[in-house]
Structures are given as structure tokens and as C-alpha cells.
Design goal:
With about 300 residues, this protein is an alpha+beta fold. Strands 1, 2, 3, 4, 5, 6, 7, 8 and 9 form a nine-stranded antiparallel beta sheet that branches. A hairpin with a 5-residue loop joins strand 4 and strand 5. The N terminus is likely disordered.
Amino acid sequence: MSGRPDRPTGYRTWTRFFTPSPAHRRLGLVCLGVGLQHGPLPPVGPRTLDHHVAVVVHHGTGWLVQPDGHRVPVTGPALIQLTPGVPHHYGADPTTGWDESFVDFTGPATDAYTELGYLDPTRPLVPLSGTAAVRETVARIVRAAHAGNPLLQVETAAAVHELLVGLRRARAGTGPGGDPLLQALERDACLPLTVADHAARHGLTPAELRAAVHRSAGCGPKDYLLAVRLGRAKELLATTRLPVAAVARRVGYDDPAYFSRLFARRVGTAPVRFRAQQSRTVPGGWNDRVPGPGHPATVL
């Protein structure tokens, strides 16, 4: 016999808490604390907090009492989203436990992240496709917590932004290649198609397309398509000598006056002014291929 017990007899925990200054809070998000825990941890709550917490269960099982009072099972990988002002009560399986990371955070940017769907108070428990990237982000917060680090608050604030992106990607199950629906919309963005046309091309109703795009991109298909068009218009204005009317046609607008008004309203400056500020003609033409290990960025 190995002499090892059949079940864990204790748990391990490591935590640090931070108090950001008013100036740091103006960064939009700040980290209030970070923790790593493993094993048959004692239950948390019932309690209510005044800030957000992302509890990431990497492995293991447990339970969560939802705001409506229903107790549901938790199986890692999963995210438990704790929302300010909402009571919560959860715990690991008392026999097997779980492997957990948590990050406490707050700031005015949480409103925008909620509007975009990165924070969802209606879903306190979210299954994840994996947590490797999230674990590395939490590890960066842990490494930043060493004594005397003058960059602590800024490093950890930046990591919270990255954490929310990583959790959103893990929630959506989106791999490095991206979301196929968003890829198709980007490919066809400059074609003379309505939202209903785009939906039909993918066998969806307009409502289903809106829901799918909002779930992945945090905005509706109209705004997503417009962002793609304006991004391409900026590239053409900054890197070519094409007339504004030709740029408008390239990105799907037959009326250059309408395009100029739309561009000015969304970008904050007229196309000709944007060109004057950004102009940089690229020898050999513009390359829209994203650099990567197999095709690094080059200057022609």
C-alpha cells in the first residue's frame, strides 16, 4: 500500500489584496485581489459584495446557489461570476474539492463590459472550453504582487482587462482562427447586402443573426459591418491616393456624400482630414493579411 489517503485531508490557499489609489481607478478597471486555492475548500457565503469577482474553477466539482435560490452543480472548467449587490453562496465538493483562481475587480469600465456582454449578471455560472490562457493571466497578477513593485496597480489593472477578454473567448469557445460567422461577415461586409440578406446567406433569421453576433462580438450585425467598412476605408485613405468617392465605392457606398457624412459622424473627422493626418502611401500597395509566424510583417 502506498500509505496515501483516499481523499484530501486539507486545502491550500494563497491570496493578496490591493487598495488602488483614486488615480489608478481612473484607468477604468482595477484589481482588488487575487487568489489561488486548491482542495476541499470551505463554502463561501451566503454573502454580498460591492465589487465583481471572477471565480475560475479549473478542475473539480462543487455547487452554486443561484440568486433565485436554486442549487446547481459546478463542474470545471467553469466561471462563477459574482456581481455587486447580488447574494452568492458556493463551495467545492467536500470530498474531492476543486482547483480555483479568483480575481476581485471594480471600476467604471465594468458598465461597458456588461453592455458588451463580457460581464453577464444573468449568468452567474458559465461553462468554459478551457482555462489555460486565463490561468496565465492570473499568474501575471500573482507575479506582479511581489513586494515593492512600483507598477503593481497598472500591471494588475491591465491584466484584469485581459482576463475579461480571455474569459469571453473561453466562454465562446473561439479558437485562434476566430468565429466563422464573424469571419464571413467581415469577408462580405462591403457587398451591397442588408442585414436580412446576410442572415439568409447563413440560414438564419435576422433575429438569430443579431443574437449570434451580439453573443460573439458584443454588438449587433449592423454595427459590426459598419466597423469593418470604416476600418477598411481608413486603411485606403491612409495608404492610397484613391479619391474619396472611390474609397466610398470600395467599401460599399455609392453615394460619396453620404459616406463622408457617415465617416465624419462615426470617426469624428472628415475623410479628407483623416487622410491628411494619417497619410502614408505604401510602396507596392496595401497588404491586409494579418502577420503571423508563417508570414511575418514585411515592408515591400
